[in-house]
Amino acid sequence: MNEGLRERLGEMLEQVSGFIYPNEIEIHWSILIVVYPYLTGLVAGAFILASLVKVFNAEDVRPTYRLSLLTALAFLLIAPLPLQFHLAQPLRAYEIFLTPNLTSDMAMFGFVYAWYLMGVLLLELWFEYRRDLVVWARQEAFPMSFIHRALSLFSTDTSEPALAFDRKAIKVITVIGIPSAFLLHGYVGFIFGSVKANPWWGSVLMPIVFLMSAIVSGIALVMFLYMILTPLRGEPIDMRCLDKLASYLFYAVIVDFSLEALDFIHRLYQSEESIHILGTLIANKLFMSLFVIQILLGMLLPVAIMVAVKSFSLSAELRKLLYFTAIILIQLGIFATRWNVVIGGQLFSKSFRGLTTYKMEVVGIEGLITALVLLALPFVVLLILLKVLPPWRKAEA
Amino acid sequence: MRIPEQIRRLSVVVLIIVAGLLLTRYLVPASLVKQRVYRAASVKREIAREVRYAGGSICINCHEEVNEQKKKGYHKTLACETCHGPSAKHTEDPSAVKPFAPRERKFCPLCHEYNPSRPTGFPQITATAHNPLKPCITCHNPHDPVPPQVPRECSACHAEIARTKALSRHALLECTTCHTAPPKHKQIPRSVRPTKPESREFCAKCHDKGSPQKTAPKVDAATHGERYLCWECHYPHMPGEA
Amino acid sequence: MDQDKRDLLKGLILFIPAGGVIGALAKAVAAPAAAAGKEASARPETPGYDPTNHYYGMGIEVGKCIGCNRCVEACKQENDVPREPFFFRTWVERYVIKKDRSVVVETVGLKKEKRKEVVDQEDTLRSFFIPKLCNHCANPPCVQVCPVDATWSTEDGAVLVDKNRCIGCRYCIQACPYGARYLHPETRTADKCTFCYHRVVKGLLPACVEVCPTQARIFGDLKSQASRLVRFERMNKIHVLKPDLNTQPKVYYSGLDGEVR
């Protein structure tokens, strides 16, 4: 047997408090499985923000529409990677598409992912960019002209009826897209919420809590990108847009917080068999990541900041600074939320009699460095997408 | 009505994807996707795994006399391989592969070392105190384990009770104060059992307020505890504790 | 069969919302395979053995277990379970309920080096051993969640893992309420008790049952009226582990203490 594993498990055995089933010493879902729901959450959140523009005609946030779609795509393309790297037999991953077990929620991954990528996101982007691609291709030199022509699927029609069809198609896709985005992330929540063996996970609220926190993190991410990219291009930040985004963010955080509070109070009030071990869990193992990072820094402080911004008329510069602080804190908080669910759910024994410890690797395939690379990769993809499909460049006819 | 250009372009993409999927469907071998095929292969692999424990009945074929001895003794419920280890190889080639035969002192205490979680009545010893340094098999025949001489002490078998009593206020009482063990009990312990006190009067001999016994705590045996028998509340091997 | 209908329904319930265009296409790929498998499942090639005639389970007589760990040892020998003390297809737990009603549990043979939780005998109210293993549930959550159909219930009532199919996602390990599964460090696939399927189909007992010196473990066929297991069920008050989770375990305990989870 692998000496490293043996040594690691030996050390972990010493960390166990109380009794755990002997096979539970190894923590099976590592930091990579924390990264996965975090990434898909950003996808769903960014897409839902984009949908607000089209479905509810939220004109104020139009400047972020294309950016949101591209962000969603960049993160969606990287989202399966942490899953892939986490498999103990990564070369067999194709089986999930070939012979999905129809009773398994996890087997639906292939369908949900493919549908969302091809049926929603790429389709909407194609209709949105089609006219611009055609026009750009005419004005550019090789190779960009070819890339844009190929991306437009060699279409040429830029007549007004064709553009009207594009607009209508986008509207339809968005209407289908919102439930699909809910499905994409609700499904991730369902994977945890449906595990009846684990009282920390097994809750009907789980998909909804996942979804709301996804919306929070997605809006915060698009705000972050908008606030970074716009000055880099030498353009002024549209404060009406930013204030509106912050306002959406504020309401999303409030709903998210209420849902999580409901879940918490419900568990406490029902006081089932598992309440003692869960109480010990959050008091000992999750105090820092749950109370301090997730709730205090990731929720209460940003809410306080946004309340302050709403109540006092502050200068644009100060608002920007405060918003920026808030969205960084929110990202930190949502990552902590994912951590607390995924890692927290494995730190207590299903015998409800003891706690174990998660020792994160640093260099291994399931280690910290891999996780950081996977968190950085979507930004690289986004950079390429921004080069190929610049969201701010409207083609002159 | 004219079909919009977008629909035509997209249909080509959709057609390519569908064609790709259908093609995969026919290219992928059945052993990968047909449940019946891969299940059968898996069950076959599972069944083909090597059997290492031969199973009890086959040993009798050659070792009849040992079995005759064992099946009458206290080890009658043990399989040969409980002690001798996995011996399927030995049954295939008896002369080349000899099964494990535990002769060391550390083996028998795996079962017979005193452990308070072990069921009452299961024979247990404290290895450090029980003829230390002598291998168990010098005195006990593992195929027919009986004490080499009839034990003088009850604690040889009733270790748990002896240990409990040793810590209690009844520590100085002999077992025979309350129990009478027929001599036969030492040979066939489960068929011939020792006596147990049957009535309140038995305890009252020491514990009634009229008793001549000096040190024992006294109660009024006529009224104390109403109709209940003493040992329904007081554990005689650890009195004073409920 | 009812079970089949239920499976189909469950599949549909999950399938339809997730479906969509791609889903329907993929269904064309997946469904014939799934349907074919349901009709005729695999027959092991052991002469004279028909899995449809058997349905296995195990009984545990708690009062007989002496915690000698011979079963754990035999299981590791028979099934290539890693010798390191972190992987178990079966294990024995020792329970000590103290006078203050607090409970101390440990796995026999799995000792921490630095700290030993020794309970003074004077503090002990009651104490006993509990052998544990895969419960081979009739409604197994591990089988339900496996995304690639790599674990399944055989007709004769064993839950097996196909180690050539398992992708190592470990969802089954998370879904098992009993901690009966682990990731085998050499094959890198999920592993668990098989009821010694390779022995049972040949008429042998599972290795743990074979070596148990006090016959605390009783293996048998629930379909046969003359089996030791059915007699055990008739003669004892029976309980299973975590019945509230509706996993319908087929490892039956007699004399099981309420503190055992």
**Outline of chain B:** elongated
Q: How many H/I helices of chain B?
A: 10
- Helix-strand string of chain A: HEHHHHHHHHHHHHEH
How many strands, which pairing sense, and closed or not: the largest β-sheet of chain A?
2 strands, antiparallel
Walk me through this protein's architecture.
- The complex is a heterotrimer of chains A (397), B (242) and C (261).
- Chain A has helices spanning 3-15, 31-55, 65-78, 80-86, 95-98, 109-139, 144-151, 160-193, 205-232, 239-270, 275-285, 287-311, 316-342, 368-388, and strands at 17-18, 354-355.
- Chain A has 397 residues and is an all-alpha fold.
- In chain A, strands 1-2 form a two-stranded antiparallel sheet.
- In chain A, helix 6 crosses helix 7, helix 6 packs antiparallel against helix 8 and helix 12 packs antiparallel against helix 13 (316-342).
- The longest helix of chain A is centred in the middle third of the chain and has 34 residues, at 160-193.
- Chain A is globular and about 70 Å long.
- Chain C is of the alpha+beta class and 261 residues long.
- Chain C folds into two domains: 1-40, no CATH class; 49-86 and 134-261, Alpha-Beta Plaits (2-Layer Sandwich), CATH 3.30.70.20.
- Chain C contains seven helices and eleven strands.
- Chain C has helices at residues 2-39, 70-79, 141-145, 171-175, 197-200, 207-211, 228-235, and strands at residues 56-61, 90-98, 103-107, 124-133, 151-153, 159-161, 182-183, 190-191, 217-221, 238-239, 251-254.
- Chain C has a four-stranded mixed sheet with strand order 9-1-11-10, with helices on one face.
- Chain C starts with a helix and ends in a 7-residue tail after the last strand.
- Chains A and C meet through helix 1, helix 5, helix 6 and helix 8 of A and helix 1, strand 3, helix 3, helix 4 and strand 7 of C.
Topology, element by element:
The complex is a heterotrimer of chains A (397), B (242) and C (261).
Chain A: H1 3-15, E1 17-18, H2 31-55, H3 65-78, H4 80-86, H5 95-98, H6 109-139, H7 144-151, H8 160-193, H9 205-232, H10 239-270, H11 275-285, H12 287-311, H13 316-342, E2 354-355, H14 368-388
Antiparallel strand pairs in A: 1-2
Helix pairs in contact in A: 2-3, 2-4, 2-8, 2-9, 2-13, 2-14, 3-6, 3-14, 6-7, 6-8, 8-9, 9-10, 9-13, 10-12, 11-12, 12-13
Chain B: H1 5-27, H2 30-33, H3 35-47, H4 56-59, H5 64-70, H6 80-84, H7 88-92, H8 109-112, H9 159-166, H10 200-207
Chain C: H1 2-39, E1 56-61, H2 70-79, E2 90-98, E3 103-107, E4 124-133, H3 141-145, E5 151-153, E6 159-161, H4 171-175, E7 182-183, E8 190-191, H5 197-200, H6 207-211, E9 217-221, H7 228-235, E10 238-239, E11 251-254
Parallel strand pairs in C: 1-11
Antiparallel strand pairs in C: 1-9, 2-3, 2-4, 5-6, 7-8, 10-11
